[in-house]
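Shipment paperwork, digital attachment
Item: protein structure file
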Amino acid sequence: MLQTPPAAPGDREEDIDTPALLIDLDAFEANIARMADFLRPTQARLRAHAKTHKSPVIAHLQMKAGAVGQCVQKVAEAEALAWGGVPNILVSNEVVGAAKLARLAALARVAEIGVCADDAGEVSALEAAAEAARIRLSVLVEIDVGAGRCGVAPGPEAVALARRIAASPHLRFGGLQAYHGSAQHIRRYGERAAAIEGAVAQARRTVEQLKQQGLECEIVGGGGTGTFPFEAGSGVFNEIQAGSYVFMDADYGRNLDEAEAPVSTFAQSLFVLGTVMSRPRPEVAVVDVGLKAVAVDSGLPLAWGRPGIRYVGASDEHGKMVVEDGGAAPRLGEKLRLVPGHCDPTVDRYDWYVGVRKGRVECLWPVTARGGFS
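Attachment content:
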């Protein structure tokens, strides 16, 4: 059942029903502009990752600022974006199963669609789906550049798979997917840089070997919010797939810059708004933001702008907070902004974004691609 919108344009922030997913529009718009400004002098273009925001509205705002398209992780996300008018979408993941492949191929009639592969059998299945749909599908070879998840080995194995794709009349070799996911949250700047230096070297070697076989990479994609400056400046990557930059979260807030200070490139723009529903003891406050309202896989949420108040435990419908270090105790019924530990799965819990500017609700946007596993 679709969730009831928690507010209406013009409402005060303190009158929003909770729990609610808030976007601070000033910070959000500044983040979009900062990424565009950073990439403008490089050879890299932004293909923003929609697994973070799951919204055609936000996709269009990113593309208006210069993004060439969006990437997603599953067919259902691609469908939501394509039906929302997003014209260029890469499924930066493998897609397996006849039903999913048929849906993916059908989307190629309404948008430019690409997908990744790391197995010859998968390529054959993609070929059959494209032939049945009478379309030609762009396929990128995913290489494992250090994450140890999906991807063939860089070098000859990747070249062989690329040649298989290029030989098909129903497929088109689109380039390389070279995302180092586990590097995104390496805290120290030098260690992150070293991890991506290795990824760049493996991608560069593979690109050179592909050229020797007459295969050009239209896309060499990867990078994320934690590492995009390294990929963008490499001279190898030409598409950056950062997603969380538009919102940020507590986990990315723990990454450090060269001076060993928290990275401050982007502002926190996404919050879960909660209400203090109980004050059972002077040092304890309970909010209506529990496991159903915020993801805790990357740590508990943080109280925004309230030093001395700490979120210490979550159950299904409750979040326990303690007052310490001389913090000002919240009152019963008070609204608190919480910073989620991980923005992507937190967004997936909501049907609506509530856009707020200077204490007033300005807009509501649907989270169109939330939920589901397809």
